[in-house]
Amino acid sequence: MPTVILLDVSLSMSRGVDIASPSPEDDDVEPLPLRRDLAVHGCNILLDHFIQHCKLEFASLIVFSSVYKVLMPFTRDFEAIKNALNLVDECDKTNIEVGLMGAAQHILEEWGNGTPCQIVLVTDGNAGAGQHTLQKAMMSTHSRVSSQFPLPFPFPAKLSIVCIANPNEASLQTSNPLYQRLIELNGEGDIHIPEGGLTKKTVSRMFEQLIKTNFSSYSGTLHCGKLSAPITLSPPPQPYCRHHDFEIVRVSVDSAIHVLGFLNTGDVSSPPAFSRHLVLPLSAKGDMVMLPKTDAGSDDEGGGNDEGKVPSFCVLLHGGLKRENMVALCQVGENWYGILYSWADNKKKSNLMLSMFVPGTEIIPWLGKLSNLGPASKLSVNPYGSVQSTSPFPIKVTEKKSYGLNCVVWVRQGGLQSDIQKILRHARKLPDKTQSFYKELNRVRRAALSYGFGELLEGLANVLERECTLLPSSAHPDAAIQLQHAYEALRNHDKKDIRQNITPLKTTFSGND
User: Fold this and answer.
1) Are 178 and 127 in contact (CB under 8 A)?
2) Which of 114, 376, 401, 460 sits most deeply, having the most CB atoms within 10 A of its CB?
3) Residue 353 CB neighbour total at 10 angstroms
């Protein structure tokens, strides 16, 4: 998942390292003089891990003090980020709130609010001159007054706070409760503090622990009958954890992914996915096997292309799924399923992808229970026919769903405005559109009562009353009568009974329907 390195470049990061009581094992090692140098060293360890194990991930570098600055936007060029780390300049005071706002804004601009992200906040354990301001801003998130505090983030994110400080520093002891509160507001994250004295080795171990906790790559095996292949998934799959009414569901992805069977792509269609991952084969050394970038018609120049000559089950499965237009149903964990399929980002290149569903056996409604699926050859009658022109899916259910009829949705202002305008269009064509007018009027009335939006009925009555006064002299007499009847009924009807409908008023005019 995309990662933002949020680096504190305030004046306090330029402090020297206290070596009064270094760790015994580091007596022969001279620590780096500045905390900022230690932070850059730790960030380089993280970036080296990306270069080796997370080549397909995106990372960004943002520095902050009292203002923030995006030094490197999201990129896969991790060497460029390492070069940018060596060019950071010291600024003024620390303001963590500004840094978090900058990270949130950059992620929203690049990825929107649906992509899970990692935010690594590297600071010196000092909340800065705005410590009390930060505490007050965090407390305001529970008030009714609109708060601009960035947490919780408007997108799924894990916040890791890395402190370049000695564990016994007074500033860290004061700031640690604030850091804990930031993690609680975000909902997911952790705090990392060096064990022992603040030296290059302890900072290295701290970042290695951060990598082990949050940036470990996935290594597993894909099985299909007697065939298997070592694979990795990018981005690494995250455990599923959801709080239900009476239980907490926690499921992790197994190291072995088993293919259970194959389905036509049309039968699966586009099911809702919990996460999507690129499936890549692993070499004998445990590294990702990347396809060589060669132009059409050019000869390979050898050197490092030995992996392309080794038979790969992943390549076989991908080619078969693409040619037959099928997907492979697989099990990724206990009661947890997904599908493998060929996905193309352009016309020339396609990849083997894994979409994982939420745990359960009834996650694709039109397929029924996944545990009931079996080989079509075992059935007495082939449901696909001789030419596979028909499909047994979707499975038809006998009961009528509550969402079978069109419902009224007013998530955005335009939806409500569109419904009101539709009523007005029918009102201006009275009495020819009398039945349509009352049908839409009752539809909006039922929705307003269901949502507890009683003020809408009064507002709609005012709009219809005004429309009645604006009728031209050439309008049919029945138009004014029906409009008057409609807005009076909106005001006088029982506003608690959703079953009562407003019916057209019977008149003696020949134009009445």
Assistant:
1) yes
2) 460
3) 21
Residue range 89-138, pLDDT digits in tens: 877 788 888 889 999 999 988 888 878 889 999 988 777 655 556 666 66
Please give the Cα distance from 128 to 137 (Å, whole number). Answer: 14
Instruction: Indicate the class that CATH gives domain 3-19+30-214.
Output: alpha beta
300: Cα within 13 Å, side-chain hemisphere: 11
Q: Which residues contact 230 (CB under 8 A, 6 or more apart)?
A: 219, 220, 221, 222, 281, 282, 286
Q: pTM of the predicted model, to two decimals?
A: 0.61
Beta carbons of 144 and 154 less than 8 angstroms apart: no
Give the model confidence (pLDDT) of 197-211 as tens digits: 788 888 899 989 988
Q: How many residues does the chain have?
A: 513
Q: How far is CA 100 from CA 66, 141, 147, 279, 490, in A?
A: 11, 15, 14, 33, 49
Question: What is the CATH code of the structural domain delimited by 220-290+312-378?
Answer: 2.40.290
Tokens matching residue 167: 């564990």
Residue ranges covered by each domain of the chain: 3-19+30-214, 220-290+312-378, 413-492
Cα–Cα distance for residue pair 482/426, rounded to 1 Å: 12
